[in-house]
Amino acid sequence: MFFQLFWTYLKIGTFTLGGGYAMLPLIQREVVDRQGWIDEEEFLNMIALAQAAPGLIAVNSAIFIGWRIGGWRGVCGAVLGAVLPSFLIILAIAMVFSDWKELPAVEAAFKGIRPAVVALIAAPLVKMAKSALKIKNSKLKIQNYLPLLVSLAAALLIWLGGVNPVWVILITIVCSICSCFFRSSR
């Protein structure tokens, strides 16, 4: 399992530009669709945990999947595979970038990569929103749209309201806990 997890995350880390969020669609395709190591619901839960934990989302997801599939050996393989490509690429770029950064071709390449990175980040967000909004029995209820409404409210508070994201996270945690207690006491 060490080598299978290492190889899977090495491929993901090598061919993903834009960081951990850009890796999410590739991670989902590999661990959910191709390998079947976890299902889609567990993948969404893993993303929530990976975001809540300190550190990089790609490394946190590698830890989760590695542990789930292969214990400590799986963690080592997945994390090494996820981190090694970035480390080597950044090392190579750092060695030559100061000499090449003013070249028009290099500037154009970086400008061209930006829209692709935005699309790679937006794609899993749309997919997660669709998964979170699964409507059961074709009944339209506010509970089905609550995750979307909370996400939009949080984004607007941070973006337009200038609220610190830490406060938004803490408020949503407190509201979620209160909501769980309210629903369980019914």
Describe this structure in a few short sentences:
The chain is mainly α. The chain is built from seven helices and no strands. The chain has helices at residues 2-14, 20-34, 40-52, 57-100, 104-132, 142-159, 165-184.
Distance between the termini: 45 Å
Q: Quickly count the helices.
A: 7
Provide the gyration radius in Å: 19 Å
The helical percent reads over 70%
How would a textbook summarize the main sheet? Answer: none
On the 0 to 100 scale, the average pLDDT is: 80
- Which spans have pLDDT < 50 for at least 5 consecutive residues? none
Determine the structural class based on helices, strands and strand pairing.
Answer: mainly alpha
User: What would you call the shape?
Assistant: globular
Strand residue percentage? under 5%
Total DSSP E strands: 0
Q: What is the number of domains?
A: 2
- H and E string: HHHHHHH
Please describe the topology of this protein.
Blueprint: H1 2-14, H2 20-34, H3 40-52, H4 57-100, H5 104-132, H6 142-159, H7 165-184
Helix pairs in contact: 1-2, 1-4, 2-4, 2-5, 3-4, 6-7
